[in-house]
Amino acid sequence: MKVFENISLKEYNTFGIDVKARRLVVIEPDDEVPPQDGEVQVIGAGSNMVFTKDYDGTVITLSNTFHLSPLTSHLVTAWGGMVMDDLIRWTLDNGLYGLENLSAIPGTVGASAVQNVGAYGAEAKDFIESVEVYDLQERRHCTFSNADCHFAYRDSFFKHHPNRYLILRVTYRLSREFVPNLSYKALEGQPHASAQQLREAITELRWSKLPRPEEHGSAGSFFKNPVVDDAVVVRLKVDYPDMPVYPVNKLSAGWLIDKAGWKGRTQGRAGVWPKNALVLYNAGDCTGDEVRALAAAIQQDVKQKFGVALDPEAIII
Ligand code: EPU
Hints:
- This protein is an alpha+beta fold.
- Helices cover about 20% and strands about 25% of the residues.
- The strands form six sheets. It has a five-stranded antiparallel beta sheet. Strands 1-2-5-3 form a four-stranded mixed beta sheet, with no helix packed on it.
- The radius of gyration is 20 Å and the shape is globular.
- The two termini are about 25 Å apart.
């Protein structure tokens, strides 16, 4: 375990926002989680959060140590702090399939369970067998089955109990047979010969639309795609017959923000990614408040233009 006092969190959030934490505790796979007093903030790779001020408490995270153990021929348990993409690479190298469509998502194994990460027709929940956590409130280990996790679109039980659970390990159920998931429209009809090729195609598709983390900080999609009533779809389709609508009544936040004219715009040092309006990014040492202000301006404008409320996927602290 490593403990740092009064440390910058710039390297601990993918937006690259430079705030300080009074204390940072980094847990390793063999550590016992120490008791905490005072306020606690649990983070994964910080890929889904925006810090707006210094944090006068303890931030707890897991080391990104590569640490996993195959349980059976289909089950693999991975350390919560591991980089998700490192796990995916390992699974394909070892003939275990299913996670390839989630390639190149920045974030950790633990976050895949908290956030039920999803992309290109796949969601983590379809592969998660169980989740081992440390309950910081009750100070004990426990295991959640897939059903206990209450997974939904970018949502889980853990998201509703922030800072209570440290996701120590996630067990995934994978397949020995590669069945390509080409349900996402840009992948349809692509005759991919191998899981590795599909992984490469997905990685390429992803980086054609999202900022590369080493170049520009971001939190991936900043807003969730909103689910609306039938009446809203009917009303908007009159003016915008080409507006994408997914089952059931899920609109595309990126399309709405783009249509409202925000794509490529900056406000202060925060910006809307020029190739994808759903992504807010750090256009140069921005503060969390600049991101928050940009997000609020977008929410207000989309509400005014389309009558649709956007809910952030990212957590503002
Ligand atoms: N669109 C625009 N303008 C834009 C962006 C999108 O018109 O600037 C349109 C696209 O043309 C398309 C529609 O909006 O018709 C949907 O876009 P896309 O397929 O890129 O997916 P998305 O709904 O914007 C979701 C996830 C992404 C995931 C992709 C691919 C959410 C909030 N986002 O984005 O997840 O990678 O699908 O599966 O569900 C993330 O959560 O961080 C993330 C990147």
